[in-house]
Specification:
Elements lengths: L1 H22 L5 E15 L13 E15 L4 E16 L10 E12 L2 E8 L23 E11 L2 E10 L21 E12 L2 E12 L9 E13 L4 E14 L2 E15 L10 E9 L8 E2 L16 H8 L10 E11 L4 E11 L16 E13 L4 E12 L10 E11 L1
Parallel strand pairs: 12-14
Antiparallel strand pairs: 1-2, 1-19, 2-3, 3-4, 4-5, 5-6, 6-7, 7-8, 8-9, 9-10, 10-11, 11-12, 12-13, 13-15, 15-16, 16-17, 17-18, 18-19
Length: 429
């Protein structure tokens, strides 16, 4: 796969060189953008669920991104984006500060015409709500979400579009150079992905169906090789002028080491637009459910849902850390989880809106007899999320986020609740 990645890089250079010649005959356009994101994050014991562990964290994350886009004509685009993110820890105080690395966040060439578009290189890929494809490497947090690969978006008709993609994600970035190389871990094992994603519109109904193959290779004797085939669909349909239904479900088969795989995952939510005029009443109400199958230890198969390329904070920014000890050190590993949840969104003005979510979290399978999670039941607990979004001006936005989790009997007796909070300012030009 390293050879394939090098071939993709060579293709980018070839296409870019060709565009230089084309640009001599057609007017070209350059675009530049700059993003500075500042986050202050604090939590007490989101990973351990134990006050006695004294495992609190308080730190700031500062991410800087500079992107240039060259459009030599109406058909071609060449994009290059550099990013750096460093953290400064206030708690614990013994963390050594490092500026981290400057890396290629995006580097791609794109050709588009009436048939659609083709994108080669390092690029962001999000499909649907990000249930199966969103983040190519979860171990570096939200500093970047890129994939190394190729993507084709084909306009079959006015109502049908087919997206094809192929990606490769190494454990560490060995494809493009870094400045001040930090040896940043990106994913636990090398991952390769191939997929097709068909989007169809039937009047008011939107249907998306897909097939995705993910291959996980091994680098250590303790790791398992895995081949995962996922077939699924997402549907969005209005039920009346104020009520809409969205649902997505997928079935997985393949293997996990010497074990066969058979897993299921999905979600559904109803969204109601209230049209209430009072500022203190919600503008949108949501009622939803999530189900991600867990592995049954009494069978010879692996029934645990694999989150594919969607290990990101889709439903919670804090609970992804609680999953670390449960899933062998893997952050944001959405599996063996069910939820009944409700959400209310308030819009106070153009500059301020507020979201309040409540999840009752459950587990389809009880935990193993291990120290963590350590419980005997299937109730994970209750999660409350409150988020205030604000717009200061056309260049500066931000939010204040607070999450609270009260663990249930899925966790060990005496498991402590936690608070998790974040303040963000985002400057963009």
């Amino acid at each position: 796969m390293k050879m394939i990645s090098k071939v993709l890089l060579l293709l980018i250079i070839v296409f870019s060189t060709n565009n230089l010649l084309i640009a001599q005959e057609e007017k070209s356009d350059f675009r530049f953008s700059f993003i500075e994101r500042f986050r202050l994050v604090t939590w007490d014991n989101a990973i351990t669920l134990s006050d006695a562990a004294k495992a609190g964290n308080t730190f700031n994350r500062t991410r800087t991104s500079l992107m240039g886009e060259w459009l030599p004509n109406k058909n071609f685009e060449v994009a290059l984006k550099f990013t750096n993110e460093f953290r400064y820890y206030f708690v614990p105080g013994d963390k050594v500060f490092d500026w981290n690395e400057i890396f290629f966040d995006n580097f791609y060439v794109k050709y588009k015409d009436t048939f659609g578009s083709i994108t080669l290189g390092r690029q962001n890929i999000m499909l649907g709500e990000g249930f199966v494809v969103m983040d190519g490497h979860p171990l570096d947090g939200s500093r970047s979400i890129y994939f190394n690969g190729a993507r084709a978006d084909i306009n079959i008709s006015q109502t049908n579009k087919l997206t094809l993609f192929a990606t490769y994600q190494p454990v560490k970035d060995d494809i493009l150079p870094r400045i001040n190389d930090f040896e940043q871990a990106l994913v636990e094992q090398p991952e390769t992905g191939i997929g097709g994603y068909l989007t169809t519109n039937f009047e008011s109904l939107n249907l998306q169906s897909y097939y995705i193959f993910k291959k996980i290779d091994t680098e250590k004797p303790t790791q398992f090789e895995s081949n995962i085939h996922t077939v699924g669909a997402r549907v969005q349909v209005p039920l009346d002028k104020s009520l809409s239904l969205t649902g997505e479900a997928g079935y997985q088969f393949g293997d996990y080491g010497k074990f066969d795989r058979s897993a299921f995952g999905g979600y559904a939510h109803l969204d109601y637009t209230t049209n209430w005029e009072k500022i203190y009443t919600p503008k949108t109400l949501t009622l939803g459910a999530i189900y991600l199958s867990g592995d049954d230890p009494t069978t010879t198969e692996n029934e645990g849902w694999d989150p594919l390329f969607s290990r990101w904070p889709k439903w919670s920014e804090s609970y992804i850390y609680t999953q670390i000890k449960e899933f062998g050190g893997r952050v944001a590993y959405w599996s063996n989880l069910a939820s009944i949840y409700g959400s209310a969104k308030f819009v106070f003005s153009k500059e301020f809106n507020f979201c309040l979510d409540y999840h009752h979290l459950m587990a389809p399978q009880k935990p193993l007899a291990t120290a963590f999670p350590g419980g005997t039941g299937t109730s994970r607990g209750d999660l409350v999320i409150a988020k205030l979004n604000y717009v200061i001006n056309e260049y500066v936005t931000g939010h204040i986020l607070w999450e609270y989790f009260n663990p249930g009997n899925f966790y060990f007796n005496g498991a402590s609740d936690y608070n998790w909070a974040r303040i963000e300012f985002l400057f963009k030009i």
